[in-house]
Amino acid sequence: MRLAIGSDHAGFDLKQTLIPFLKELGHEIEDLGTYDNASVDYPDYAEAVGNAVRSGKAERGILICGSGIGASIAANKLPGVRAGLAHDTYSAHQGVEHDDMNVLVLGGRIIGIETARELVKAFLSAEFSHEERHQKRLDKVIALEEKY
Questions:
Q1: Quick one: which of 22, 70, 97, 106 has the fewest CB in 10 Å?
Q2: pTM greater than 0.90 (yes/no)
Q3: Could you give all domains of the chain from N- to C-terminal order, each with its CATH number?
Q4: CA 49 to chain centre
Q5: How far apart are CA 47 and CA 57, in angstroms?
Q6: Are 65 and 8 in contact (CB under 8 A)?
Q7: How many Cα atoms within 13 Å fall on the side-chain side of residue 134?
Q8: pLDDT by residue (tens digit) across 105-134?
């Protein structure tokens, strides 16, 4: 799968650890920054990852900031981006199955590497169910986005 990954300074170390892991799993990775621990603004990386997903350059995205909350808020401002913060495998998997989540957001200061690896695997192995009840809800989310 083609993946876009990005982080601010608080997610940098976790991002750097996840990239080789994702490559080992056979994924094609586009690292959209940041490229060091210098202080940066998370909305810039949320926009970069979100745009990669929106444009089809990436099939899914992974975004990391300190708590994951700021990056989630910023990424969800982009039409077509459905970013979900997950710190447990159920949410990482179910967010895709039920809500067609296309960007996984992680809190680099909240979780450790082993948990992050499990979350990424759960996210990447899931597929949207297309069940009628889930599609109906997704259509309502899309209509809200288009309305405003």
A1: 97
A2: yes
A3: 2-147 (3.40.1400.10)
A4: 8
A5: 14
A6: yes
A7: 13
A8: 999 999 999 999 999 999 999 999 999 999
